[in-house]
Amino acid sequence: MGCPDDLGIDANTGVAEELEHLPRFNVPGDGKFEANTHEDIEARTRAWLEVNCQHCHNPSGFAANTGYYLDVFRAVDTSYGICKGPTATGAEGSDGRSVDIRPAKASQSILEFRISPAATTPAARMPPIARSVVDDEAHALVRQWINIVVDNTYEGAQGCSGN
Predict the structure, then answer these.
(1) Is 106:112 a contact under the CB 8 Å cutoff?
(2) How far apart are CA 151 and CA 103, in angstroms?
(3) How far is residue 120's CA from residue 132's CA, in Å, rounded to a whole number?
(4) CB within 8 Å of 59: residues ≥ 6 apart
(5) Contact (Cβ atoms closer than 8 angstroms) between residue 109 and residue 101
(6) Do 70 and 57 touch, CB atoms closer than 8 A?
(7) Is pLDDT of 22 > 80?
(8) How far is CA 152 from CA 42, 148, 149, 161, in A?
(9) What is the pTM assigned to this prediction?
């Protein structure tokens, strides 16, 4: 009950092709957008953030007090980190950066730092679960998304001084 009548099972792979799913972050074009377009990069980045961060960064999660929420259904605006100042990271978790996501400037974004090789202490590293090794592919994708896709047209971008 509630399942679609036609799942679009591929005869060769046996995989249901007609189910809504998050794109695999490391497979360009896996979602509904052409590979490596801005839409594809954003969809894959958001999928990675949903899987790795959203379990805490949601209104009922461990990081609910931050107001920084990373579910794929949310608009990419201040609550998604655009020009949003930190509430709980402290100096160690922010690396001196003043906002979670600064449009076009990954090197000035707290998100980029926290998932990067530069975040070497447990208090700075994200995601906190099973983070003994940096996910280099995801880090590169997040950097690409912030530097190339996120710009001043995103809601909340006006909140960054010196964009």
Answers:
(1) yes
(2) 5
(3) 9
(4) 69
(5) yes
(6) yes
(7) yes
(8) 15, 11, 10, 11
(9) 0.86
